[in-house]
Amino acid sequence: MDDPPTRFDDLRILEIGDRALFAGAFPDNTFLLWTGIRKIAAGTRQMNFGLAGAWFLRRALREDRFDVIVCHAPLHDPLGARWILRLLGRYVFLFPPHHFRTCGVLFLRAVSGPKTPLAVLDTEDSPAVNRHNFFLFPRCRTYFKRELPPDHGKVFFKTLHPDLPTIRVRRSKFFRQSVARLRPISLGIADAKARQILEGQPVPVEKTADVFFAGALDNSLVRARGTEQLRQLQSEGYVVDLAEPNLPLDEYLARCARAWLAWSPEGLGWDCFRHYEAAVCGAVPVLSRPTIYRHRPLQHGVHCVYYDVEGDGLRTAIVDALGDKARLSAMAQAARAHVLAHHTHRRLCEYVLETVLANARLTPTR
What is the pLDDT of residues 293-335, one digit of tens each? Predict the structure, then answer.
């Protein structure tokens, strides 16, 4: 699964946030400015945000040292009382450096708007954009949102407006320009994990289970109701592999690969790592109906099986799918190819860069 060179290998990328997505996908040309609570090991291509990091960011923006800046939208307001009290309770003796480090993205507010194209990634479970991230919209070229509502304007539910954004709010300049910048993105699968699956499994894998599921059941009503239907299928003679939520990774991937179907229902958010892990393992994902606007979605009957959460929709969908094993084999192959083509972390990074550079109409400056 070696990736061929691309034009993005010559881009100078600055990544700011508590995730290392681009630093992992393009390690040779990405500089990571880390804003996570816990420190990372500093190196030639990464730095913990602090006083030196603030100075570095200020000079980098003024001198146009990078072709693209990518920042991860913080879930919590670094200056909010709840976040400050949480850090005080957890890191009372190290509060100043821990707190200042989490303000790295917020520091973009204190410097002049960068000429360098800025992309924002919001991969949190919430379908809303929190108020403390509003300042990023006028500065960014594109705002990538994982749990993006089909009506994109609903990301401002109870943040820009006390309730659903009204017609008056939707006509405002900020609303229209912000919605125009929104794009979907998936969680995808890490390239290293996809490589581990492909290199560690025989092809084809012998199927020993009809349905596989491993995950928490108490964080979603969709999961709780679906589990009842899986147990009903067990009582009818179907082989349902219900595993503990914290399986070792190797065992989780192996058991998933041995199943015809992998149940991947909505949790705290609709999008889930399991969607893409199951597909690369060679199991056909069984997904509750999507509630979000998606990037390069898995298609029903081609890559996956969607089911209605009402009534016995899950049981019916599984029984129907298992009635044609040849079709499931073809779907599993198509799902794996689709995920490897569009939903590995490197492919997602390329999608972000393509979108931002197209919007900016720029080419690398180096």
Answer: 999 999 999 999 999 999 999 999 999 999 999 999 999 999 9
Quick one: residue 62, left, alpha or beta (phi over 0 = left, psi -120 to 50 = alpha)? alpha
Do 191-342 and 7-188+345-360 have the same topology in CATH? Answer: yes
What are the residues facing 288 on neighbouring strands? 307
* 169 phi/psi in degrees, rounded to 5: -65, -40
The residues, any chain, with a CB within 8 Å of residue 109's CB and separated by 6 or more, are 135
CATH for 191-342 is 3.40.50.2000
Examine the pLDDT at 264 and tell me if it is beyond 90.
Answer: yes
- pLDDT tens digits for 9-40? 889 999 999 999 999 999 999 999 999 988 88
Q: What is the CATH number of domain 7-188+345-360?
A: 3.40.50
What is the tens place of the pLDDT at every residue in 77-126?
A: 988 888 888 777 776 556 677 788 889 999 998 776 558 899 999 999 99
Q: Which residues pair with 241 in a beta bridge?
A: 212
Six-digit token string for 189: 């699968």
Q: Please state the domain extents for the chain.
A: 7-188+345-360, 191-342
Torsion sign over Cα 232, 233, 236, 240: negative
3-state secondary structure the chain: CCCCCCHHHHCCEEEEECCCHHHHHCCCCEEEEECCCCCCCCECCEEECCHHHHHHHHHHHHHCCCCEEEEECCCCCCCCHHHHHHHHHHCHHHHHHHHHHCCCCHHHHCCCCCCCCEEEEECCCCCCCCHHHCCHHHHCCEEEECCCCCCHHHHHECCCECCCCCHHHHCCHHHHHHHHHEEECCCCECHHHHHHHHHHCCCCCCCCEEEEEECCCCCCHHHHHHHHHHHHHHHCCCCEEEECCCCCHHHHHHHHHCEEEEECCCCCCCCCHHHHHHHHHCCEEEEECCCCCCCCCCCECCCEEEECCCCCHHHHHHHHHHCCHHHHHHHHHHHHHHHHHHCEHHHHHHHHHHHHHHHHCCCCCC
